[in-house]
Each structure stands twice: as C-alpha cells, then as structure tokens.
Amino acid sequence: MSLELHDVSCGYSGRKKSGLVFVKVSLVFPNKGLLCVLGKSGSGKSTLLFLLAGFLKPLKGQVMRDKNQSFSFVLQDNGLMAGLKAQENVSLPLLLRGKKEKERERFALEAMKVFGIEGLKDKKPAEMSGGECLRVGLARALAHGGEIVLADEPTGALDSENALKAMELLKEISKTRLVVCVTHNHRLAYGFADYIALVGNGTIKYEREYGIARETPRKLPVGKGKARIGDSLKTNLAMIRGKTGRFFSASLAVGLALGALLLSLTFGANAKAAAIQLTSNYYADDVLRMSRTTNVSQTNGMALTRQEELQEDDREFLGSRWDAAFFPPLSFFLPDTLRIRNDGKTADVSMEPSFGSGNLKVGENPDEFNEIVINESLCNEMDIKATDAMGMTFPLKVMKEVPLIVGESTVQGTYSLDVDLAVVGVAAEQAAFNSPVAFYDYRLARDYLGAVSVSPELGLTVEETLVRGEYLNSSLRSYSTLVVSPDALKIHEYFRDENDSYGIVAKSRALDARQAVRELIEAISSLASVFLSLICLVAFFLELVAVSTIVAEEKRDFAIARAFCPSSRAFWLFSFGLKDLMFLGSALAMMTFYCLGWFLGRKLLSDMLLPMSLLSFSLPIFSLVVLSSYALAFFASLAPLLRISGKGMVLSLRSER
What is the dihedral of CA 645, 646, 651, 655, to 10 degrees? Predict the structure, then answer.
C-alpha cells in the first residue's frame, strides 16, 4: 500500500494560533524518490510530516499507510542526544527495538561508513561540527531502515556548502526509499527533488511530478521489539546528563522517608510478639478470673453489684466452646494483697495464682505451699537485687471468723493461717510495665489448705467451707472462678467485647498487661506511621517536581526517542527507565536507612531493656513498602512523560511554529 492522504482536514486549537491548517487535502505519495515540500512559515509543512508519521490525528479524513510502514527522521538540529556518542545516536532506533548491542554496533558502523563518519563514533555532538552532526543524523535514518525518511528543515542550520552536501546525501538515500524533505531553500529543492509539493492556503499540491513511482523499495529488517531494560536504564541516564544530582536527591528523599516508615510499620506489626515478651514472666497467661455480675440492690437509680462464681450453666456454655477447666478461688483463705516491710521500706504486693513455671531470672519454681516467686518490680520497690531477694521471707497471717451452716443452724468457726513465705525465684520482666507481685503455685496452695480444718471444733475442711458457707458473711463481697484454658486469650477477648450481653467478666493480669503494652506500642507506631506517610507524600511531590523539570528541560530528547520508537507502548516501556532509575535509587536509600536503623535500633532497645522482637523482619510489610516505592516512582515519571505525547511531542520536534 502506498502512502496517501484522503480528504484530510487538520488544525490546532487552544493556542495563540488556531484554525485549520489543511482542508480536505488528498495526495498520493511515491514509494521512493526525493519529495521536497515548500511553503511559507506556518503554512503546515512540519504538520504534514507529523500527520504522515501518525503523531497527529486528522480532524477529518484518513491517512492511508501500511501498518508495517516505519519512518526515520532527520531534524533541523539533527535531533542528536547530547549525552550519547555518535555511534550511540546512530544506533538509538535499533536500541528502541530491542536489538542486541553487537548487532546495533554493526548496523551503525555500516551506516556511518556510507557518510564517511566512522571515525567520529566516539564523539559526542558538542565535539562535532554542524555538518558532521547532520551526517550522524542521516546515518541514524539509514541505520533505522525505515521505508520513509521524514526530514524537517535538515539544511536550515547549515552553511551553503554543508547544505549542498546534505541534499546530495538525501538524494542518495532516496534511491531506495521515499524521502519527504521540508525546506525553505527553493534553489536546493528544485536542484535535487524528484517531486515538488507546495503547501499553502490549507492545500497541498504537486508543482513538479515525474510520475508516481510504484517500485517497491528495498526493505530492511526494522523489527517491532522493545528496548532492553539495561539499555533503557543506560540511555535514560545519559538523557538526564548533568541533572543526576537533582534526580537522585529526590529519589533519596523518598527512600529515606520510606525506610523510616518501614521501621515504624515493623514496630506496629511486632507489637503483639513484643507485648508477650515484655509481660512473659510468672504470670499465668492461661488462667482467667471469671465471675458473673449480680445486682444486690438498686436505690434511686444507683445499683449495688457483686461478682459471684460462675454458675453451672455458665460452665456448660464455656465448656461447649473452649477447652476449659474450672477451679474454686482461694481468695477467701488467701489475701489478694500483702503488705511487706524490709529495712524500713514498705510495698503492697498482689498475690497471684500460677499454674506453671514461668520465665525466671534467678531461682527455681516453688515446691512447697509457702514458697513464692516475686517479680523484679517488687525488687525495685524494695531496693534489693534479684540475687539478694533469694531466701528472704515475708510473714503471712490470716485469721477469720467463718459463718458455717451446721445442720439447720448457722455457727461461727475460726480460720487462721500463720506462715512465712520464702522467696525461691525472681521472675524476669520489664519492670516498667508491671507492679509488685508475688506468685504462688495454685495447686500446692489448694492441696495444703484442703488438708487444714477451718474449725477444730466442727472439723470442717476448706473445701466444705467453700461449698457451704462462702457467701454468708457479706452481701457485697465478690468472688470468682479460676478458669484454666489454652484458649484463655480468646475467652478474654470474647467476654471483653460481649460483657454487656452475658454479664460475665473475664480478668487476667497477664493478658490485661499484654493488651495494654500492645496497644501502647501500636499507638506509638500508628502516630509515627501517619507522620511518616505525610513525609512520604511531601517527598513524592518533590520527586514529581524534580522529574517534571528534568523532562521539560530534556523534552527534545524524549520526543526524539518517541519518534524512533515502533509504537507508543515501546516508548512508554523505554521512557519508564526513568521510573526504574528512581525506584532503584529510592529502594537503595530505603534499604540503607532500614539496615542502619535496624542496627542502631537494636542497641537502643537493648539499653531500654525492650525486646529485640520489635525489629523482627516482616516480609508482608517489606513487600508493601517496596511496592509503594515502585508506585511512587511510576506516578512521578508518568505525569511529566504524558507531555511527550500527541501535540506535546509535535511541539518539541517541529522546527517552525
């Protein structure tokens, strides 16, 4: 299929000059030969070239071309990229089609030999004369192998001698393909052209025509590939020559912000593990104190309540959903708190039941009822070292008048306990998150108390007292049931959320402390993450501004790359080398900052006695932040590159306005 215009109308709008450039123009182009286009400035000569190449779409009509037709370009200033050497400029179209380096070099050198410039292969445009640059531009058009060469004022910036040589070279190229040359030089046009087309007043017409050639020109293997990633990165880096400091500074800012955000999110993700480690001492995390809330009386809108042991139906409900064992409390016979004194110092200590061994700093687990484990908070409160606490004893004296049911009568019995509690171990913990506690082994205490008669006169045991007379002494005294379950955390969370519905309270000193620590760490992490996310957005806009200005300054180079790309998709894939460079820069900065923060953070956490688990690596979070880095780089490069398309590209390439 030949190249043809069918009733084409084309124009511009939204600019200082607007209106139609062509009105219902029809023209059939030859398959080879030199066609010179003449006309006044602004008549539409360059517009014609961009219509033929497909960079501009007609308002009406059609540009008929073979879908496999390819175009080469020769521009007024030769369109050479200042950051590339002569050979690299010549081989640029081949790079954009994914040709391998050795193949590109071979084609480029062959084309340069045609114009006698193979000795200039390692020189950059600034090191060559205007005539030499023109030859490089012509060699690039030849190496590209397109069936049609579009030349926009190739002699406009040359002296008469070099202009004559340029037309001779174009004439030589036109022997095997069509060359459409826009020029103001009538003398050269009429001296070399096979065809003369005049542009003006919205029309295009042949003035001189030797017959439309129909011979098929020699077709070279241009290809429809895409630039390789390595070549794309290298070429894009050359295109932003002299601006890499500004470019990578913006990427560095994004990378540092993302690295800080990664550390913050890592803290939040590891809050649960850290909370467990911080509260992992002798607290039994599988033990719950559970009770049912009961209204005792209500007067003038005020209700008095007490906590009662779980009823039979409560236990059945719990047992049907979770694996749980139920034990009666010993708080009736052992105090919930104990006040101890040592060398003039006093501390109020919570008495906590433990069902198993804990994380001991020193010492061992209790073997007898009167043996206890204390925590480091108690040591700090009493101003003693953990090792000095071993073997210390604390007096425990309990004496109660116990109302008992004997037969049909209620009588008073006496319960007394007088023992010395010996410290056999100190639980390792982060003292800042706990209050003074003494842990006793629940099973040992229960066995011991069960063998003691509450009242020698009546001979009732502790177990019988719990069943028969526990609630007789006070209508306001609260009691609970100890529930031991591997699902303690689930039960705790369930009744914390559903307390109003069931009227059941589940308490655990271990789980409450763990939840408080976790919420504190997550709150700090969330605040830091919000702040750092805002910093990331600011860094992204800085990156966007930097890339936009760089692309604006180098828009000519990007437009040239677009002109030689086989398709819009190939151009986007190539130009997104900017995105890859930004991503690599920010990812490197992010990883450097993260690793540095990780090493310094471990030292800081160690000094603060906080767990190393706060810095544990999280693959999902790392992947999320890396993807965010990629997305920021993508959008930062997308916006400015959108300008190098359609009319934006045309305005960057055209030699006349």
Answer: 110
Distance CA 389, CA 577 (A): 67
| Structure tokens given for 565 | 């790309």
Is residue 317 within 8 Å of 491, Cβ to Cβ? no
Within 10 A of 99 (CB to CB), how many other CB atoms are there? 22
Q: Which pair of structure tokens corresponds to residue 92?
A: 């640029």
Torsion of CA 266, 271, 275, 276, to 10 degrees: -80
Half-sphere exposure of 47 (CA within 13 A, CB side): 25
Q: How far apart are CA 566 and CA 221, in angstroms?
A: 12
Q: Which residues of 149-163 are buried (b: 16+ CB within 10 A; e: fewer)?
A: bbbbbbbbbbeeebb
- Yes or no: say if 442 and 330 are a contact pair by the CB < 8 Å rule: yes
- The H or E element spanning position 425 is strand 409-427
- Write the pLDDT tens digit of every residue in 261-300: 999 999 888 888 888 777 766 667 788 888 888 766 666 6
The DSSP output letter for 213 is -
Which amino acid is residue 86, in one-letter code?
A
Q: pLDDT confidence of 219, banded at 50, 70, 90?
A: very low
- Tokens, residue 136: 């490089």
Instruction: Measure the CA–CA gap between 15 and 5, rounded to whole angstroms.
Output: 25
| Contacts of residue 414, Cβ cutoff 8 Å, sequence gap at least 6 | 399, 400, 401, 402, 454, 455
Please state whether 357 falls in left (phi above 0), alpha (psi between -120 and 50) or beta: beta
Question: Measuring CA to CA, which residue among 541, 548, 539 is closest to residue 637?
Answer: 548
Secondary structure, 3-state, 298-366: EECCEEEEEEECCCHHHHHHHHHHCCCEEECCCCCCCCCEEEEEECCEEEEEEEEEECCCCCEEEECCC
Give the other-Cβ count within 10 Å of 72's Cβ: 26
**Contact indicator for 271, 557 with CB cutoff of 8 Å:** no
Q: Compute the distance between CA of residue 190 and CA of residue 188 in angstroms, rounded to an integer.
A: 6
Task: Give the pLDDT confidence of 353-405 residue by residue, as tens digits.
Answer: 887 677 788 998 898 989 999 988 888 888 888 898 998 988 888 887 777 66
Where are any strands of DSSP class E within 2-85? 4-12, 19-28, 33-39, 60-64, 71-74
Distance of CA 24 to the CA centre of its chain: 53
Q: Structure tokens of 22?
A: 């062509």
